[in-house]
Amino acid sequence: MRRQFKTFGDGSLIEYGRGQFDAWCVFLSGPDLPRFAPRDAWYFAELQRLGDKHGRYRLYDDFVRIYDSTCAIPDAGLLALITGLAAGYGEDALQVDRLLSVVYAGMIAEENKTHAPLKKRIKRLGMYQCLIENMAAEDAANFSRHRDWKLIDKECLARGF
Fold first, then answer.
1. Which has the closest alpha carbon to 21: 41, 9, 7, 37?
2. What b/e string do you get for 105-137 counting C-beta neighbours within 10 Å, with b at 16 or more?
3. What pLDDT digit, counting tens, does each position of 37-53 carry?
4. Are the beta carbons of 70 and 78 closer than 8 angstroms?
5. How distant, in Å, are the alpha carbons of 73, 91, 101 from that of 76?
6. Is the pTM of this model over 0.85?
7. SS (H, E, C) 121-147
8. DSSP letter (8 states) at residue 159
9. Pfam family of this protein, just one (predicted)?
């Protein structure tokens, strides 16, 4: 069953639906793109490109504002904050809004997974790696795959989160 998460001014939307593992798969669709499940590597690469244009630390700091307020329940106020932050990116406002909203939806999904001990921290590690450490988007997306959560926890703690 599809659950609408956020609709944008151009008619694009983010929703949850059934994926391979659970009903917390994030989907993005719109007038300029077919419905698809954004992969970490895709949005990390897009965020790196936007970070190169607008400042990677700025984009990461905006992400952390969202991260700090994220819990297992979607918050309309936080969705509005994302749109407000995105407005500061000028001509890229819609793309930043979409991307940060997709990451937010993904963090909510992580918070709702029963067997995910790291919860939303997994997204923060990837964002830190791709925006601050300049790790290739594909490498950041796959860094945690098939690794013991305790090792990933140590990676997070070494970076201060």
1. 37
2. bbbbbbebeeeeebbbbbbbbbbbbbbeeebeb
3. 999 999 999 999 999 99
4. yes
5. 10, 24, 11
6. yes
7. HHHHHHHHHHHHCCCCHHHHHHCCCCC
8. T
9. DUF7004
